[in-house]
Give the backbone structure.
Amino acid sequence: ELEPKALYVLLNGNQVLVRSDLELAYLDYATVQSIKEESRTTFLGMIHQHSTPVFGVDLLGENASVPATDDGSGALYSFVDTRTTAPLFSALDNEIALHATAYAQWQRRSGFCTLCGAPTTLVEAGTSRRCTSCNTPSWPRQDPSMIAVIGSRCGNKVLLARSPRHPPKMHTVLAGFVEAGETFEAAVARETMEETGVCIDEGSVTYVASQPWPFPQS
């Protein structure tokens, strides 16, 4: 059920609703209530010093329409690709957009129990599922991954790679998924060797920061 005092982030698969200034759009209760398309709502957490609940609303149609909005600012609204746009948001909005996207993608892909194959139903405000037959609970899968900057000994150069799927002249730092039973340091060394043939010392790997990143999954 919708919460009158909450804010809502609207999604359509891998797209999220933004304002014309490329800020994440937070919709109010009345606007979301007016949406007639089939949707799925998930609790994302609390903001504004834990005073305001935020929900993600995933519109399940293939070509969802932008709801009529009028916040008095004259801003226009549109759906944009979450993967390419979320990094442009503020830190909080980036986290909320990717959090909502992760749940939306998991919910779309996990309609059946992995143990017995029976349908599952969403529980706990959309954050978990429970099998309708064997009662087994399930939660979104976590896929730990790493991204690393490999520097030269002189400190003036970094190692870049280019994937065949990337546009011409696009090069990136190295990234990949952590395998079962593997440390992050070992993953950095393995991915570097696999992608470039360069051998690095696991002991030289230092941690910098983390970020939410729900796509792709391994």
